[in-house]
Structure formats: C-alpha cells, structure tokens
UniProtKB/TrEMBL annotation:
Ligand binding (ATP): D111, E148
Gene Ontology biological process terms from the UniProt entry: pyridoxal 5'-phosphate salvage
Cofactor needs: Mg(2+)
Family: Belongs to the pyridoxine kinase family. PdxY subfamily.
Gene Ontology molecular functions: ATP binding; magnesium ion binding; pyridoxal kinase activity
InterPro entries in the record: PM/HMP-P_kinase-1, PyrdxlKinase, Pyridoxal_kinase_PdxY, Ribokinase-like
Name this protein carries in UniProt: Pyridoxal kinase PdxY
The keyword GTP-binding belongs to this UniProt entry's keyword annotation: no
Entry's EC annotation: 2.7.1.35
Amino acid sequence: MKSVLTIQSHVAYGYVGNRAAVFPLQRLGIDATAVNTVQFSNHTGYGAWTGQVFTAEHIADIVDGIAARGVLPAQDAVLSGYMGAVELGQVIVETVARVKAANPKAVYCCDPVMGDVGRGFFVRPGLPEFIRDHAVPAADLMTPNQFELEYLTDRKIATLDDALAATAALRARGPRLVLVTSLTRSDADPDSIEMLVDGTDGAWLVATPRLTFDPPPNGSGDAVAALFLAHYLTAFDPADALEKAAAAIFAIFETTRRMGTRELQLIAAQDDFVDPPRRFIATRLR
C-alpha cells in the first residue's frame, strides 16, 4: 500500500483542497495523511467564507507531531496544494526535504495553486513568486493549470507547440514530470478540453468532452492532482496515469452536472471514478 502526506486547504462544506484529494486517494487504495493549511467554512469561490489560515508555526508543529510517530519514512509522496502564505510554503518545502531525507525514493507532487484563466491570481501577494522560485525546484511532479503554467514559465500558450515549450521550460527548472490539468488551445476542438503530461520519457495528450457548468465547480484541479498521483504511484507510467485521471475526473464532472450542484460530487461518483464507465486514450506526442 502506498502512502501520501497531503498538505492543503480544508473546508467544512464542499470539496476543494484536502477535501477534494483525501477521499479519492483513499478510495484508490492510498493511505493519506492530511495536514490542513487553512480551515474555512467553504471555498472562496462563493465570495464569502469564515475561518482562518493557519500559521506556519501551527503547520510545523503538526508535522513535528507526525514525524514523532515515525511515519515520514513510510511516505511515498508529498502532495501540496493551496499554501495560504509564503511562510506556510517554506514549511511545506522544508517538510518535503524531511520526507526525502527519511525516504529518498519519495516523490514531491506540487499543485501550484495560485490562479486560473478568467480569475487571475487569488492568493496572497508574494506566494506566486515563492512557488516559482522555491517550490518548482523542489518538485518532482508539477500539476499546473494553463494560467499557472504561463506564469511559471513566462510564456503565453495558444497552441500545442506553445504548451510543449512551456512544459519543457518548467521541467528544465526541476520537475521531471509536468501535468497540465486543463489545456485550451486555438488549434484544438473547441468542444473538448485537454490534459497534457510531459516528462523525460515522452509527452502525451488526452482530450475529453467539454462539459458546461454555471457556475463551474471548484476543486477540480485538486482532485485531478490527487487522482493522477494515485495512479502514477501504482506503476510510474505517466500515460496510464493520465488516461485514468482523465476518465475519473470526467466521471466526477458528469455526476456533478447531473445532480445540478456547484460542489464536486465525489461521494456520489466514487464507484465511477474508481472504475470509470468511459475511457479516453492518450496520444503520444514524442
């Protein structure tokens, strides 16, 4: 059984951050240890919420407590998402170093949560720069959306060649594998949305039908990162993990749209994201 230390946000209601990551990890057979960087009543997409961002000292204390139980050597990966503040980011990067010291084979999967197309940045000032300058070099696997990839590489992405140039530029700065969790380009079918994975062994692209929502559900990137990581840890096969993650998130989207809610329906879709009724084949690009 694989184990993942996941350090992300937490909401009491809804499914973003660890609430979107822990259950999929567990349902796919991964033992997930969750550290929450914030505790909010609901995700910020609603425009109003209560709760607080935890201090760096609080997170460090929790990690120290976990380490005292002797579990760091058993972690196969660290997954990070919404960091909340630069100081929290520093604790996360330091925690990754501690896990890797205890288990040199451990993988750091960084979901660089900072913004999205149409919304721009939605994190505190200084955090995008911290992720670019410190989290990227520490990561083995990055899972940016298109907006985040453009920022991290200072490149605009309009075509598939643009996207591959950007993922190559990001890999050159540290990560050996980059998953673009949502890709929209001018030279693709407008009725589809794509995911792209690019690594040292090749690059693959997968497309799924574009489903419309009003408003769209939050937390899909958090769920995709967890789904991809879970499948990647099983066989370390990027193409296989891409196909399975794409099929899983599409099944979640279909259930969410059918139920008419803006929250990802992870519970209702749990059987379908473990064994998706519809499969999507990845195309090898190189």
